[in-house]
């Protein structure tokens, strides 16, 4: 390998590290106005990619808790409340008061085992916005994932009866 190529590879590697570090700082900087999670909470941050027409997209928050559960279909209940950062006007979301929810009542021959039980409730589907991160506070022990939903401009006709 020539000296010139080695120098170019070294420069390229340095630039890649610099860009990665800049992105990490940008990621941290875009949430500095949001409060830290308190001792009983975890804070999750979701960043979504920019879309050409964001009105065609929705973001679904999928929260769950790992707990012992038998063969019955189970869910937990909770509400995702929208709050505002004072002085900034940015929104964040808080999941509080997670309670037992609906369950089937089958007799289960197998013992209960640990599995993720979903949390269902109001306001888990949010307007899509790539300009700001989604910041979500949940009780400790809750896991947060997300789905991006997409539609088209085409609408189906309803039948008039």
From TrEMBL:
Molecular function per GO: serine-type endopeptidase inhibitor activity
Signal in keyword set: yes
Listed Gene3D superfamilies: Ecotin
Keywords: Signal
Signal peptide coordinates: 1-26
InterPro entries: Ecotin_sf (IPR036198), Prot_inh_ecotin (IPR005658)
PANTHER family, sorted: ECOTIN, PTHR35890
NCBIfam families linked to this entry: PRK03719.1
Similarity annotation: Belongs to the protease inhibitor I11 (ecotin) family.
Protein name listed in UniProt: Ecotin
Organism in which the protein naturally occurs: BD1-7 clade bacterium
């Amino acid at each position: 390998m020539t000296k010139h190529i080695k120098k170019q590879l070294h420069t390229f590697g340095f630039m890649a590290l610099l860009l990665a570090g800049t992105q990490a700082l940008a990621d941290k900087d875009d949430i500095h106005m949001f409060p830290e999670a308190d001792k009983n909470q975890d804070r999750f941050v979701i960043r979504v990619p920019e879309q050409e027409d964001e009105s065609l997209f929705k973001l679904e928050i999928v929260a769950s808790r790992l707990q012992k559960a038998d063969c019955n279909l189970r869910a937990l209940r909770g509400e995702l409340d929208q709050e505002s950062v004072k002085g900034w006007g940015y929104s964040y979301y808080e999941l509080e008061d997670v309670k037992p929810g609906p369950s089937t009542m089958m007799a289960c021959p197998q013992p209960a085992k640990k599995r993720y039980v979903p949390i269902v409730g109001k306001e888990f589907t949010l307007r899509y916005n790539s300009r700001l991160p989604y910041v979500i506070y949940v009780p400790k022990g809750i896991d947060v994932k997300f789905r991006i939903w997409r539609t088209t401009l085409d609408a189906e006709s309803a039948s008039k009866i």
